[in-house]
Amino acid sequence: MATIDLSPLYRSSIGFDRMARLLDSAMRAEGNGAGGYPPYNIEVIGENRYAITVAVAGFSDNELSIEVENGILKIQGRKEEQGEEPQYLHKGIGFRTFERKFNLADHVEVKGAKMENGLLTIGLEKIIPEAMKPRKIEIGTSLNLLEDSAK
User: Fold this and answer.
1) Nearest-angstrom CA–CA distance, 118 and 57
2) Backbone conformation region of residue 79, classed left if phi is above 0, alpha if psi is from -120 to 50, else beta
3) Are 66 and 74 a contacting pair, CB within 8 Å?
């Protein structure tokens, strides 16, 4: 497994330690083969709007669950027991239990979900708070903070 040296990032950035943890967990997940089932797409819909589409053929709405906790979107699928198992000549459609997790960036909210033609689509939107939007800083003749600390 490859390692990534993030020390150049730390020299000029503050507060990106969460990014390092995300990269590390993504590298470990890929190494464990967790990226295969079920297949999914991540799509950019517009500015600050995204959609995750997961192929969940054979699962009904009540066999799927979607949760968001601590910035992690978790999608689970559990097939209900169906009494007697049909006898297959070939079984190529996997109805196995799954759990798929996505790390959400700060201020990304799940706006809804829909199921259509065996595809579960989850809408996401990044909502930037007013306090984080760019603002112009006026240049004045004095700065009380600097003057107070010099005393």
Assistant:
1) 4
2) beta
3) yes
For the segment 62-99, what is each residue's pLDDT rounded down to a tens digit?
999 999 999 999 999 998 777 787 888 998 877 789 99
For domain 39-82+94-134, give the fold: Immunoglobulin-like (2.60.40)
Phi, psi of 129 (to 5 degrees): -65, 155
Q: Letter for the amino acid at 113?
A: A
Q: Is residue 31 a contact partner of residue 21, using CB atoms and an 8 Å limit? A: no
Query: What is the Cα–Cα distance from 3 to 23, expressed in whole angstroms?
Result: 10
Cβ contacts of 103 within 8 Å, gap of 6 or more: 22, 25, 26, 71, 72, 73
Place of tokens 């689509």: 121
Whether the model pTM is above 0.85: no
* CA dihedral over 145, 146, 147, 151, signed as positive or negative: positive
Domain ranges of the chain: 1-35, 39-82+94-134
Residue 127, sorted as left (phi over 0), alpha (psi -120 to 50) or beta, turns out to be beta
The residue with tokens 């939007």 is 133
